[in-house]
UniProtKB/TrEMBL annotation:
Biological process annotations from GO: regulation of DNA-templated transcription
Organism for this UniProt entry: Anaerobranca gottschalkii DSM 13577
The protein's name in its UniProt record: PAS domain S-box-containing protein
Keyword Membrane: no
Pfam family, one: HTH_8
Record SMART domains: AAA, PAS
Keyword Transcription regulation: yes
Keywords: ATP-binding, DNA-binding, Nucleotide-binding, Transcription, Transcription regulation
InterPro entries listed in its UniProt record: AAA+_ATPase, AAA_lid_NorR, Homeodomain-like_sf, HTH_Fis, P-loop_NTPase, PAS, PAS-like_dom_sf, Sigma_54_int
NCBIfam families in the cross-refs: sensory_box
Domain Sigma-54 factor interaction: 161-391
Gene Ontology terms for molecular function: ATP binding; sequence-specific DNA binding
Limits of the PAS domain: 19-67
Amino acid sequence: MSNKAKGKKLDEIVIDNMLISMMEKIFDPIPVPIILIGKNTEVIMINQIFADFLGYPKEQIIGKKVLDVDRNSRFPYVFKNKKAEIAWKHKFENGHTAIVHRIPVLDENGEVLYGFGMVLFQDVEEFKDIIQKNKLLESELSLYKTQLKEIQGAKYSWENIVGESEKILQAKYLAAKAAQTNSNVLLLGKSGTGKELFAHAIHNASNRSHYPFVKVNCAAIPQELLESELFGYEEGAFTGAKKGGKVGKFELANGGSIFLDEIGDMPFKMQAKLLRVLQEKEVERIGSNSPKSIDVRVIAATNQNLEELVAKGQFREDLYYRLNVMSIYIPSLQERKEDIEILAYKLLEKLSNGMGKYVKKISPKTLEYLRGHNWPGNVRELENVLERAINLTDSDTILPVHLPMYITQRTVTKGEGPLRPLKEIIEETEIEVIKRVLERTKGNKQKTAKILNISRSSLYDKIERYGLE
Ligand SMILES: Nc1ncnc2c1ncn2[C@@H]1O[C@H](COP(=O)(O)OP(=O)(O)OP(=O)(O)O)[C@@H](O)[C@H]1O
C-alpha cells in the first residue's frame, strides 16, 4: 500500500485516485508547471511538465513528502504561516532558479486543506526579460502620450505671455476670466500680437485642459476642403473619400477646445454651417444623416475688423454675435512699448537656448533702437529680428550692428530716434562697415584694410575693440 493510501478506507482511496487521474487529465496538457500538495506536505498531483522540469518520473514524485522531492521547498513554511507567496524567486534543488507561486488553500476553519504550487517563469532571465520589455513598453507609451499631447494639446500658459504693461495685463485678466467659463471667446488683434498664445493659455487654464486643443487655420485650408476638415466625412461620401471616412476637427476636439484662427477668412457658406454647429451642439459628417452631439468650446481669432466685414456683408452677423460673447483685444507692440525690453530679454533667452548659443545681453543702444521701432509685425517681428541678431553676433551681446538696417538707419538718418553722442554713432557705423567688408572679403583682413584705406594694425585694433572676430 502506498503512503498516500495509508489510514484511508477503500472507497476514499478510490475517490482520491479518480480525482487525481481527473486532475492529471486536466493539468497535464497545460504548458505551465503545476503541483498539488496535501495537508501533510505530500505530493498529491504533479503535471508532466513540472515532473520533467524536476527531472523525475511522475510516479517517483507522487506520494512523496515535498521536501524529499525538493529540499528547498517552502511549502512547510507556507502551511505554517498560511500565507500565499506570490511570484517568489525559488532555487530548486536541481539548480534551476524560477519564479513561483505557493498558495495554501484553507477550509472554513482556517486549516490547511492543501497547497497549490505553480512555476510562473522557469528561468529568471525570462522573467527579467519580460520586466525589461514591460518597462520599455511603459516608456514608449509615455513618449507617445507626450507626443499626442504636443500634437493635440495646448503648449502655452499665462507665464509664456510676457509683458507688464497695463494693456497686456488687462487682456490677461479678461482671458483668465473667460477661461473659467464655457462661453465662446473671440481674440482680436493685429498679426503677431500673441492671439494663438492666448488661445493656448485659455484652454490650459480651463477645466477642459485635459481634453484636446485642436487648431484650425481657416485661411490656410482651401475652401472646398474646409467642411470635411471641420466636420469629417463618411466612407464613400464623395469620389476620393478615404476608406473608413475621416474624423472632423470638431469631433477630435470633443470635450476640449477648438481654435479657429483667421475666422474672418471663413467662406460665407461655411459660416452658416459653423453657426448651426454652435447652436445645435452637434456635428454631422459629410455623407451621414445621423448627427453626433459634441461638447466643444470655440476660441476664434482674427486680425480683421469683423464689424466692418459684417457691414460689407462678408461675415454673418448672427455668427459674429455667437462668437463675440467674450471678446478680448490683444494690444499691438506699439501700444505697449514699455514691454519691449522685458520681451526682448525673454525672447533672447528662449531663442539663444534653442539655438545653442550663449547670448545674454542687449546693449543699451540696441534697446533704444528696439524701442524706437514701430513693430508692424509685432512680437513675431521682434522674435525674427532677435533671431537674426543672435546668428550675427560673435559675443554674448546684441549690438546695434546686429539689427537690420531698416531699424537702425531710421534713427540715424532721419533723426527720429533718441539723441546720442556723436562718438557712439561713429562707433556703430565703423562696426557695421567693417563687418560688411569683412563679409565681402570672406574675412581677409589685408584686403579689408586696403578697401577701407586704413592700416592693418588699426583694423586689428578695431576688430578687437568691437569684438568682431
Ligand atoms: N506676449 C508674448 N510673450 C512672448 N511671446 C509672444 C507674446 N506674444 C506673441 N509672442 C510670440 O510671437 C509669435 C507670434 O505669436 P502668435 O502666433 O500667438 O500671434 P498671432 O496674433 O496669433 O498671429 P497671427 O494673427 O499672425 O496668427 C509667437 O512665436 C509667440 O510665441
